[in-house]
Amino acid sequence: MLFMHETHKVIGRHASAFEDLYRNEWMAALAQSSDARLVWYLNHAMGSGPAYQVVTITALSDGAAWEDLVRRMLRGDLSDLTSRLDAERYEVTGKLLTPVFWSAMQELDLAEVHTDGREHELSVYMQDTGWPNAPLDDYIELWNHDYWQFMRRIPPEKKLLDILACFQVAHGSGFRPEAILLQKIMNFSTLGHLLTSVEEYDPTTWPGTYMTKGLDLRDQWESKLLRTSNWSPIW
Amino acid sequence: MLFVHEVHKVVGKASARFEGAYRNGWMPTLAEGSDARLVWYFDLAHGSGLAYRVVTITAVRDGAAWARLAKRMASGDLQAWARDLDGLQHESVGRIMVPLEWSPSLGSLEDIPTDPTEHEPTMYMEDTMWPFPGKVQDYIQAAGDVYQQALSAEGSQVQMHIELALQSMPGAGRYPEVTLMQKLSSLPPLIRLLTHDIPAAVVQPGSWMHEALEFRDQWQSRLLRTAVWSPLQ
């Protein structure tokens, strides 16, 4: 399974029109086939980063499904919709993601993904993108052994977040080395504590911790706080 | 056919080993199957931009073939090769592209050489354009009708021709984005282009330079030199 991850730099005055195109046309167009579904529509939370940025994630059954979708967009029945989306944004950057071996999310049953735009409460995700200065495989293993295995054992009532998926960029479709964590925020007061507390990761104070050990492999990553729309198929 | 275009930021001290990994690893390994072939291995000419940058272009038969290749890289027989390459490059940026309707064809995958026969290096000007929102189709059409024809006209400012014209595929890079791989057939016109102001006639109303501003005003040129063993020169 592939996940087409796109970051859209939307024209501010056209933000509603852009969202409507995704909700009323893109989601519905994909629903006509069995091998692609829009799964997330996420707004980058204003106040935490760039303005008017939207992240969409479209799930595809395989590489042939992605190529079929692209050909529909470039020269087929979706070319008009693609042109109208282009007119509502400055640019879009995409990458194709595959779940890493330990990711909780591997396959999605596309037939089970909602396509009717039903409304629901909002969720907030923390999307972490990391760029190691070591082999990518070592970084993915660090996340497995020192982060995922630890976080999954935290009792639900104490959890800041739930790691839904971990991806790597499929060959040639973006940056390497890069890996991505998609994490649902479970506790907003803990998030507030995280944002307002002074970090205490001095290696001499916290030897062997994930934060300290992780510095052997990387010291650059980016967190994005992404809020689902109230109709996002998954939230 | 699809094309995986990668720009590699190579570790300077490891540049020879990086090239060896492509010449002795990637190219022959792909040649064992029928899904993909290395097409070009380019060095960005020192003195014209960033140092230790390599551009590789790999052709893959279709989306399914690309997905199989990606899986081999992530968890199959090419995982060790990819891991080794991680130590030879700081990073790479890839995108997957499809030929424009009017692009010249490179022929079939089977036509691409896989033996490291050495040739004289060839210079390319790689131009990447970012059309304005909603203008990509107009730009592609005009580039085929006007620009490509102008390049082949007698008296062209730069003696080069388009070997391959590509656009990015949504979901695998920035979109819209158009890249032209242009082979230089003579160096003096390039030097003249670099060292002289653009003639007024070239930018007056009615010219490509003037009229194409309706579709885009941002692009980037790279001067690339093929490795002597690059499958295509």
The number of distinct helices of chain A, counting runs of at least 4 residues, comes to 6
Second rung of CATH, namely the architecture of the largest domain in chain B: 2-Layer Sandwich
- Tell me about the largest β-sheet of chain B: 8 strands, antiparallel, barrel
Choose one word for the global shape of chain A: globular
Tally of DSSP β-strands of chain B: 9
Task: Give the amount of beta strand of chain A, in percent.
Answer: 25-35%
Low-confidence stretches of chain A: none
The level of helicity of chain A is: 25-40%
Order of helices and strands of chain B: EHEEHHEEHEEEHHHE
How are strands sequenced across the largest beta sheet of chain B?
1-3-2-9-5-8-6-4
Shape of chain B: globular
Largest sheet data of chain A: 8 strands, antiparallel, barrel
Q: Please indicate the percent range of residues of chain B in DSSP E strands (runs of 2 or more).
A: 25-35%
Number of domains of chain B: 2
SSE-based structural type of chain A: alpha+beta
The assigned CATH architecture of the largest domain in chain A is: 2-Layer Sandwich
Distance separating the two termini of chain B: 19 Å
- Poorly predicted runs of chain B are none
Fold and architecture overview:
The complex is a heterodimer of chains A (235) and B (233). With 235 residues, chain A is α+β, with helices and mostly antiparallel strands. Chain A has two domains: 120 residues, 2-Layer Sandwich (Alpha-Beta Plaits), CATH 3.30.70; 103 residues, Alpha-Beta Plaits (2-Layer Sandwich). Helices cover 29% and strands 30% of the residues of chain A. Chain A has six helices and nine strands. An eight-stranded antiparallel barrel of chain A has the order 1-3-2-9-5-8-6-4, surrounded by four helices. In chain A, β2 and β3 form a beta hairpin. Chain A is globular. In chain A, 35% of the residues are buried. Chain B is an alpha+beta fold. Helices cover 31% and strands 30% of the residues of chain B. Chain B has seven helices and nine strands. In chain B, strands 1-3-2-9-5-8-6-4 form an eight-stranded antiparallel beta barrel. In chain B, α2 packs across α3. Chain B is globular and about 55 Å long. The mean pLDDT of chain B is 95. The interface between A and B is large, with 51 and 46 residues.
